[in-house]
Amino acid sequence: MEIKESLRATLGSLPDSPGVYQYYDKDGVIIYVGKAKNLKKRVSSYFQKNHDTGKLYMLVRRIEKINYIVVKTEWDALLLENSLIKKHQPRYNVMLKDDKTYPWICLKKEPFPRIFSTRKVIKDGSEYFGPYASVKVMYAMLELVRRLYPLRTCNLNLTEENIQKRKFKKCLEYHLGNCKGPCEGLQSKEDYDASIAHIRQIVKGNIQGSIRFLKEEIEKHAANLEFEKAHELKERMEMLEKYQSKSMVVSPTIDNVDVFSILTDEKSGYVNYLKVMNGAIVQSHTIELSKKLEETPEELLLLGIAELRLRFESHSPEIIIPFETEAEVPDATFFVPQKGDKKRLLELSENNLRYYMKEKEMQENLKSPKTKTEALLEQMKKDLRLKELPAHIECFDNSNIQGAFPVAAMTVFKDGKPSKRDYRHFNIKTVEGPDDFASMEEVIYRRYKRAVDENEPLPQLIVIDGGKGQLSSAMESLTKLGLENKVAVIGIAKRLEEIFFPDDPIPLYLDKRSQTLKIIQQIRDEAHRFGITHHRKRRSKSAIKSALTDIKGVGEKTTEKLLTHFGSLERISNASQEDIAKLIGGKNALLIKEFLNKKEEKPIS
How far apart are CA 512 and CA 518, in angstroms? Predict the structure, then answer.
């Protein structure tokens, strides 16, 4: 790729250091922010090769200026990159689809600190815990600590001087038992601060530590015969144990660990975060990252880790992830579990992602079913290398047993769903014996010859049930009709679910979970079912017809009348002679009933 003169000097002076680079367009607008372990290697790589994706090619063409910031570590680069992306929202960067402001629990920096929820973090020395992705969980925590430790809720300035001057009076909260009255000196600062210390541990997730402390205090008070105090502390301990039992305990040996997993689709990456303290999950959150330049799962995961650890102010020394990475986090190590409790934690995180993606898909479907259909057709178009959306698909399958009664079936899908009124059967007319290739050639010719003659709209995709042979036969007929370049055709071989294209010897293997493959399998299976059903009916009718035409004096036309009216040999046998006579006359009715009655007579042994 040719390098612009305006960029040569910058590219030549790039350092071999970690850092963040910013690309600007001709209007001075930042269009991309990236991080690098080595700025020189990373930035130069954009200009040293031809790019496969159109978006990357367009990005590089639009770069007019490069700025960079050198940092100490790759992790610092990742944090700075995340910050700059949020600030400038460049066109070609991954976008975080999460603009919510999450609530925190605040321990206010003041005499006799209050505890309350807030969405604003003010740097005034107060302590903030969270943020909480679930408001319900946050309120449950606040309710727990207020029941355990009655604290003031007023905003009075409870300085020692004001309390001594008796500036304040007890309010209703004191009389309700929700506050111990520090405003009148009825609760000492030492006792209040001791409650705050326990609350601090509880909101940090260290519930087990608080339970151990309460057990020790209960034993001390019981030994001193202070049973009333011991009972009060026991009630607190039971509340904590009840709350802890509602938390999901994963393993008592796992403490202060962050767990991250990632799943991706065509447009986005989804990163789930679990926080584990004292063996229990105390925090869970999922974010969505919108792809822009075919970012890898590793790139998306690292962006998610940087964002979530920063947001939740996590300093866990161990980070569990699904695959190895060369990235490093200060004061923490990455761990990829292969088995055991930590592996199960990772699987739990991935399950959270699947539920999140499924719920998101359901919500989108409720809003607009049309959007889901369009997304499915777009995916099929991409997977199958089509020129247009496959809104109308027709699939063909042959059915015969040792060449007898050869038939073919055509099933039709429109907008990804079966269109049963358009299904068709074909009785093979020109082929003798079990010749699937010739049968396919005949059916395709007959179907699309009629479509051409009657000026019917052609499908965007034809699916042939079979491998290269059946596909080649279908193409023979389409070529005769001059349609070889007007409609896309693929073959699907049953054994390995290989997708074959005309004039391409190498098959395509789609992911087994792919929606595209599922649709192709569904229409193929429908064609097989539809064809087999018709084949059985033909065999059945033929067997009946051959049985009745053995009767002397009964011809094919008479038999056809009976089959059309009664439907089966059993129903003809059960019908009265009078009913049969109404249809084919008394003489023939008598012949048929005599014949059928003889067949039902059992031989005497």
Answer: 8
What is the Cα–Cα distance from 401 to 407, expressed in whole angstroms?
A: 10
Cβ–Cβ < 8 Å for 271, 308: yes
At residue 36, what are phi and psi to the nearest 5 degrees? -155, 140
Residue 418 phi, psi dihedral angles, 5° rounding = -60, 135
For residues 180 and 230, give the distance between their C-alpha atoms in angstroms, rounded to a whole number.
18
φ and ψ at 114, to 5 degrees?
A: -90, 160
Considering only residues 307 and 594, tell me which one the structure prediction assigns the higher pLDDT. 307
- Is the separation of the CB atoms in 422 and 459 below 8 Å? no
E strand or H helix at 5, and its extent?
helix 5-13
Q: What residue ranges define each of the domains in the chain, with the CATH number in brackets?
A: 5-93 (3.40.1440.10), 104-205 (no CATH), 257-364 (3.30.420), 380-537 (3.30.420.340), 549-600 (1.10.150.20)
Q: Dump pLDDT digits (tens) for 39-90.
A: 988 888 888 766 656 677 788 888 888 888 888 888 888 888 888 888 888 8
- 464 and 490 in contact (C-beta within 8 Å)? yes
Going by C-alpha positions, the residue among 356, 171, 179, 206 that lies closest to residue 278 is: 206
Instruction: Give 551's contacts (C-beta < 8 A, 6+ positions apart).
Output: 591, 592, 595
**Contact status, residue 144 vs residue 239, Cβ threshold 8 Å:** yes
Rounded to an integer, what distance in angstroms lies between the CA atom of residue 355 and that of residue 270? 11
Q: Please tell me what DSSP assigns to residue 253.
A: T
Cα three-residue angle 520-523-527, rounded to 5 degrees: 135
d(CA 601, CA 605): 12
Please check whether residue 126 is in contact with residue 200, taking contact to mean a CB–CB distance below 8 angstroms.
no
* Residue 172: both structure tokens together: 């209703």
Please tell me whether the peptide bond between 131 and the residue prior to it is cis, using omega within 30 degrees of 0. Answer: yes
Contacts of 579 (CB under 8 A, 6+ apart): none
H or E element that contains 462: strand 461-465
377 vs 291, 380, 393, CA distance in Å? 20, 5, 11
Alpha helices for 454-507 (secondary structure H): 468-480
Both tokens assigned to 432: 């003798």
Q: What is the pLDDT of residues 7-46, one digit of tens each?
A: 888 888 888 888 999 999 888 899 999 888 889 888 888 8
Stated pTM of the model:
0.50
Main-chain phi, psi angles of 137, to 5 degrees:
-65, -40
Give the whole-angstrom CA distance, residue 429 versus residue 538.
14
> Strands 280-290, 248-249: parallel, antiparallel or unpaired by DSSP?
antiparallel
Q: Which tens digits make up the pLDDT trace of 283-332?
A: 778 888 888 877 889 989 999 998 888 888 888 999 999 999 888 888 89
Distance CA(22)–CA(437), nearest Å, equals 59
Q: How far, in Å, CA of 53 to CA of 430, rounded?
A: 49
How far, in Å, CA of 21 to CA of 60, rounded? 13
The token duo for 89 is: 């929202």
* Residue at token pair 């052609």: 458
How far from 588 is each of 469, 541, 562, 585, CA to CA, in Å? 49, 19, 11, 6
Q: Name, in order, each residue with C-beta under 8 angstroms of 112's C-beta and a sequence gap of 6 or more.
A: 151, 152, 158, 182, 189, 192
